[in-house]
Design a protein that fits this description.
heterodimer; A: about 250 residues; alpha/beta; Rossmann fold; 6-stranded mixed β-sheet; about 35% helix; globular; B: about 375 residues; abc type-2 transporter like fold; 2 domains; 5-stranded mixed β-sheet; about 65% helix
Chain lengths: ~250, ~375
């Protein structure tokens, strides 16, 4: 449960982020309710990761306001970080540590007590199929294993709000479906989840609502089935083509 | 401040230093292998009495007993091994070919001179003054640094003067080397301590840049760890690594025969000043990481800070130009080496003004560099 329970999970109001002449996020406003699984969709460079980075307190917006669990992401970033878990787009894990050591390192950063840390570490490694490799150095892991470990690192402290930035990129279909199942379980646990992806079928499969961003601007917002019905199209991919005249490009 | 977070950073960095082959080599193996190789090349004694015998040629033009006394005294030093030559030309030929590292020419009036001194030691006007010529192999660091002082001391000894009191002998080439009976390796040993610690800066720079490149820094920044906890954890881990590194280098140097006759306090001081010195290298590492945009660039830029410290402040810079001697006063490593040299070779007390001044200079400069590094990194590469 969010610290300020009466507040929505995430509030974004007229958010703008500019890099010189380039506007990465253009007047973005949206709300994510508590316990919702929200998808932020768009092609590479649309502004999804920039938005996530602002919501995590990693970037300062040029203008506008954002809060997570009622905490202003700029002014109350430290309090907010206790409540969020972020699986960043890069597969960022320490290769010279074992899987278990990586997880415990991040558990220590959240000052989890020894017993809680051990329990959550075992549980998460088991759930994501890494228990058997927990004591191997991460440098020996495959790309898919590293992605799953990266997900565990974001969840070790049992966060209330989870940001998953392209969590299944580069995964084989089997691993991708395993991660989808895991994300559904997180939702069942009541977590507020923001998922960025450029895989439209992933959004259709998982999300309660989606926001489609292009060139930093929100061009559609709503439940996937409703957006598809309103657009008179067969799926989100077709909706994106109808709205922008372009296909969503695949990750390089 | 949460100690759990700080300790987590320390554990992680120490594991990295032990498990990452590149860092393991750069921080631990390279200094040890370097010291071993250097020690073997420059006269380490592998646990003997720490002295190495140097071949010297002697051209004795004196027929009296004093020159024999001098030769006996030179032999008794056990550092110089005199080879008698019948003429100066042959001796010079051997010198030029590196067969001997120095040639001493005893003048024909040497015995007369000593006799005049012994007859009236307090009346310099009655002395027969003479010059002992010393020719040195200029290509040999050992010859130029060590032999003149030993010959000078031996001359003083046979006059019965152990201080630098007036006597009738003049050594034509004599430098004021203050150390006694040292191999070249031992003379360089204090600088080797300093030398090894400098490489920490490269590790710091690479580590920070790599963590930024692979997204780890971003991942850490979304956790509740504060900048202060993160930085203190990093600084503690690198000083701990510097301590282990210094202990390894010290053990290696000791194995090679450098065992100065000083008390435990001197050793404690040596490790303390190295630890303080490591702060400046962490600072330089952070400055490098601020500027560098890739691991390769970090390595290159590291050398901008590493080389001046290496050449101006360690054993590498033993024979510096006058300009370099002024410049070295602006690098922290010089004060570390100077303090360790005073402590281990000159026999200075830990509380002597020279050592205290060096320690103060190292502390002030290192803390200033560290603060600058932390400030620049925090400002330009958010933690």
């Amino acid at each position: 449960m969010c610290a300020k329970a009466v507040e929505p999970g995430i509030v974004v109001e007229r958010l703008v982020k500019r890099y010189g002449d380039v506007t990465a996020v253009n007047d973005l406003s949206l709300q994510v309710t508590r316990g919702e699984l929200f998808g932020l969709l768009g092609p590479n460079g649309a502004g999804k990761t920039t938005t996530i980075n602002i919501l995590c307190g990693l970037l300062k917006p040029t203008s506008g306001f954002a809060s997570v669990c009622g905490y202003d992401v700029q002014k109350e970033a430290m309090k907010m970080r206790e409540l969020i878990g972020v699986c960043i787009q890069e597969t960022a894990v320490y290769p010279y540590l074992t899987g278990e050591e990586n997880v415990k390192f991040f558990g220590d950063l959240y000052t989890l007590d020894g017993e809680t840390l051990r329990d959550r570490c075992s549980m998460l490694l088991e759930r994501l199929g890494l228990a058997g490799d927990a004591r191997r150095r991460v440098s020996k892991y495959s790309g898919g294993m590293k992605r799953r470990l990266s997900l565990i690192l974001a969840l070790i402290h049992d966060p209330q709000v989870v940001f998953l930035d392209e969590p299944t990129v580069g995964m084989d279909p089997q691993s991708r479906h395993a991660v989808w199942d895991f994300i559904r379980e997180l939702k069942k646990e009541g977590k507020t989840i923001v998922l960025t992806t450029h895989h439209m079928e992933e959004a259709e499969e998982l999300c309660d609502r989606v926001g489609i961003i292009d060139y930093g601007k929100l061009i559609a917002l709503g439940p996937p089935e409703e957006l598809i019905r309103r657009g008179g199209v067969g799926n989100l991919e077709e909706l994106f083509i109808k709205l922008t005249g372009r296909r969503i490009r695949e990750e390089a | 401040m949460k100690p759990q977070r700080v300790l987590a950073i320390v554990r992680k960095e120490v594991k990295k230093a032990i498990r990452d082959p590149a860092i393991l080599f750069m921080i631990f193996l390279f200094p040890v292998v370097f010291v071993l190789a250097f020690g073997l090349a420059y006269g380490a004694s592998f646990g003997s009495d720490g002295q190495t015998a140097y071949e010297i040629g002697v051209v004795n033009m004196d027929q009296g007993p004093a020159s024999q006394t001098l030769l006996t005294a030179l032999s008794k030093t056990e550092i110089l091994r005199p080879n008698i030559y019948g003429d100066n030309q042959t001796a010079q030929n051997d010198l030029s070919q590196g067969r001997v590292q120095a040639v001493i020419a005893i003048p024909s009036d040497f015995s007369l001179s000593l006799a005049s001194y012994q007859a009236a030691p307090d009346d310099p006007r009655s002395w027969v003054n003479t010059s002992v010529a010393l020719y040195l192999d200029r290509g040999s660091l050992i010859a130029t640094q060590v032999v003149p002082s030993i010959v000078q001391q031996t001359l003083m000894a046979i006059t019965g003067q152990y201080a630098r009191a007036p006597n009738p002998f003049r050594l034509e080439i004599a430098s004021l080397v203050e150390v006694k009976s040292l191999s070249s390796f031992e003379y360089m040993a204090p600088g080797m301590f300093t030398f090894a610690s400098i490489y920490i800066l490269m590790m710091v720079a690479q580590s920070f840049v790599q963590d930024r490149e692979n997204g780890m820094m971003k991942r850490i920044r979304v956790t509740p760890i504060t900048s202060a906890e993160f930085m203190i954890g990093q600084i503690l881990s690198y000083t701990l690594i510097a301590l282990v590194q210094s202990a390894l280098v010290f053990a290696t140097i000791s194995l090679l025969g450098f065992r100065p006759d000083v008390g435990a306090l001197a050793y404690i001081f040596a490790f303390a000043i190295i630890l303080v010195f490591s702060l400046s290298n962490i600072g330089f590492g952070l400055i490098t990481a601020t500027v560098a945009r890739s691991g390769g660039a970090a390595t290159g830029i590291s050398f901008l800070f590493l080389l001046p410290q290496l050449f101006l402040g360690t054993f590498v810079g033993m024979s510096l130009s006058s300009a370099a001697q002024i410049a070295r006063r602006f690098v922290p490593s010089y004060y570390v080496t100077d303090a360790l040299t005073s402590l281990f070779l000159r026999g200075a007390d830990v509380t002597s003004p020279t050592i205290l001044f060096d320690f103060a200079a190292v502390s002030v400069s290192c803390i200033a560099v560290l603060m600058l590094g932390v400030f620049l990194y925090s400002k330009h590469c958010a933690i």
